[in-house]
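Workshop exercise sheet. Pairs work together: one partner reads the sequence aloud, the other fills in the structure field after running the prediction. Swap roles for the next sheet.
Pair: D.N. / O.F.
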Amino acid sequence: MHVNIIFSEPNFKMRTAEAKQYIYDRFRRKYVLLTPEEWVRQNLLSTLITNYAYPSGLIAVEKMLRINNLNKRYDAVVFDKNRSPWMLIECKAPEVILSEDTLMQTLNYYSMLQCPYLMISNGQHTHIAAIDSEGFRWLDSVPAYNL
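Structure field:
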């Protein structure tokens, strides 16, 4: 099930160095290379904060997880007020089709975090699932952050 998320008007700090474009990541507090995937991540997170009242102080970006003796980095996690993972977010470049492989990658991260929600997005298509004792179900809207 596809959730329609309209990105808010961006107001990002940008800079160019050595013919490459960089965007300021407020979560990592530094400029990062502006790749298509980074564009999706920054716009999606900005929209969740601006339009859905997600707390910016409870969002972590590109943190390390150890899965099957391998170091992996998740794209973003929204935490609840107790600092427990609440939503895992996996971002892909706009040209990347959100496939079963994308879902499996996200579920690998989920296995370590065990949060109630996961979101995968390529900026054009976004899928959100709730996972609880009743199982896995696709949602048709962005869950409210009202914890």
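Discussion prompt: The first strand starts at residue 14 and ends at 17. What would you look at next?
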